[in-house]
Amino acid sequence: MSFLPYFVAAWLFLAGLYGIITSRNFVHLIICLAVLQSSTYVLLLSIGYKWGGVPPVFAGAAVGTPAVDPVVQALMLTDIVVEATVVALLLSLAVQLHKHTRTLNPDDLEALEG
Amino acid sequence: MPLAPLPVAIPFAVAGILAASNKFMPRRLADTLAVLCAVANLVFCVLLMAAARSQLLVYWFGGWTPRAGVALGISFAIGPFGAGLAAFTSLLVLAAMVFSLHYFDAIGTLFHVLMMVFLGAMCGFSLTGDLFNLFVFFELMSAAAFALCGYKIEETAPLQGALNFAITNTIAAFAALLGIAMLYARTGALNMAQIGRALDSRPDALVLTAFALILCGFFVKGAVLPFHFWLADAHAVAPTPVCVLFSGVMVELGLYAVARIYWGIMDHPFGADRAAVTGLLLAVGTATAVVGAIMCFGQRHIKRLLAFSTVSHMGLMVIGFALLRIDALAGAALYVVGHGLVKASLFIGSGILLHRLRSVDELELKGRARQCVGTGAMWVLAGLGLAGLPPFATFLGEAAIDDTATKAGHAWVAWVFFFSAVLTAGAVFRVGGRVFLGWGHGEEGETGGAKKIEEGPETKGPRHDIPAAMYGPAAVLALLALAVGIIPGVRQAAQAGATRFADYAGYQARVLDNAVVPLSPPPVEHVFPASSMARSIGAAAAAFLLAWFALSPYWPRKKSWASPVKRLAYNVRRVHSGHIGDYVAFLTFGLALFGIVLSVLVRLGY
Hints:
The complex is a heterodimer of chains A (about 110) and B (about 600).
Chain A: H1 4-22, H2 26-48, H3 70-101
Chain B: H1 6-20, H2 27-51, E1 57-60, E2 75-78, H3 80-99, H4 110-127, H5 131-149, H6 156-187, H7 192-198, H8 205-221, H9 229-237, H10 240-266, H11 274-297, H12 302-322, H13 326-357, H14 373-386, H15 393-407, H16 413-437, H17 468-486, H18 490-501, H19 504-513, H20 530-551, H21 563-575, H22 580-603
Antiparallel strand pairs in B: 1-2
Helix pairs in contact in B: 1-2, 1-4, 2-3, 2-4, 3-4, 3-10, 3-13, 3-17, 4-5, 4-10, 5-6, 5-10, 6-8, 6-9, 6-22, 7-10, 7-19, 8-10, 8-22, 9-12, 10-12, 10-13, 11-12, 11-16, 12-13, 12-16, 13-14, 13-15, 13-17, 13-18, 14-16, 14-17, 15-17, 16-20
């Protein structure tokens, strides 16, 4: 296993953070959050990957056949469900915000200072 | 133990029923179902707590028990602390549901659905013994909390607060997930006991990174400096019954997760670095307590004021955990319960003000609540609890932590408690004096230019009465905080729970090998030193004096000798900008700093 996937995971996490910190639009910001989250997908999959491994379906396979790790794949699926929920919720909040204030720029919101 | 999954299963089932019948279920029936569900949960959690006293209860879903120390299944590992926290959650949800009987008259039953999901997720979070399961319940509880926080969707402030809350906490959850994935990569396990057993050596760079990510992830939920920004925003805008749960138990669950992970996984690998962990967490806790207290005193929005008091008290609880000793852990547990009860009571008090007078702005409410004598009395009672006056449960916790800290050579910790108590309780008394007695000025003063936050009404109908369903829970919770401090045997029970919680080897043996683990808690000292009693009474008195001074004409309002202090407070306040980019920048900075300091301390063998 090369180091490349781990580097990509770290890169996605940091790029997502940078995007969120500098964002001027809540929709952009929420998508940056999704980018940040994809770092967890990459990391989970690369942890369970095995060169030359088969998919983890063992019906008919000989004992000792190398296979990729099904646990991390299950974790990733759960992770996707979580993301779908949270991103949908966040986007709906952003839509409501736009309805009330006609803006999506975090810089324009001043209700909660101090 | 077939009872074990019920505290999670029942609320989810009820949530499903309520959601499916949302269109035609009468409001009163939904209320009844939700209240009954909270009661049932409370009963089951108390039963679990009683059953867990003799032995850790381990429940394997689907009967997937571990073979030869390898756990493939997912387990609940229930000790007295976990079950107790779940019971406490159920109690606060019950209080919040009773309080909201008169709330949100026109909204159908979606509020109930979210509250039940929130309840089930928080109970699952306290009971689970699996690291990934912990993450899932964390996200489930967060998603319900985001939706509840932004419930008043027709106003701008709740939307901004909910967005800030949701974005910071989601980043935190993913940081924790990255850490969990790293631990899985190293150990091939997700069960906490199994990870602990597999990690039995000094932490290397990967393990240190993993723990820094996981701990910071849960510290964001725990509102620890510099991750605390979301908390005040979320509390200021969430509906009152939701604030009760946020401050009363949700924030504390973040610290619970850190403690669970420490005593379940980290204690042995970090055995040689306990001083490093203690030093780092003491610093973090102290900073949180001090900044929270300063911000608390400078607020005029009552819910936001109480929220910053929660930040400050979270710092104190982190200090209790940071000492990594059984006595202090028992003290922290008592403090969580005591603080949760009085804070819930105070939030309900602010909800009563909002119901009755249509505002939670301290200056605007000046003298308008003179006729609410009962609410005012309850407010002061809860404020005394916040100050840690004996015999409140908060005092028991504080005294135990102070005592342990002094024995460990950190005698200054007691003064952090004193500082926090004086400022937070002082702010609460100031609100009491101004709102219920009409003392002081009605214009900008000691709140130093804090902005007014618009708060929409949460109730309809006649305002000239306070229904018993609103007043009752507040009074019962404040009196419970007093009762917990008086009941004999509470400290012994907390001590036994803490001993079980901190039994690293016993936890692994019980979960992985199904062994019977004996328990011998260290004895509790029956009398506290007179100095800690005197300090607590002194703190309450000083808080009264501070509140009186703030409302008196002598308070320096114009340019004066107090300018440097004011400028400091102003600068601390300005950092809390309400801007999500700033919050995430602080989060990133805090995460990096925490990881670097932890690694340096551990690697240098401090």
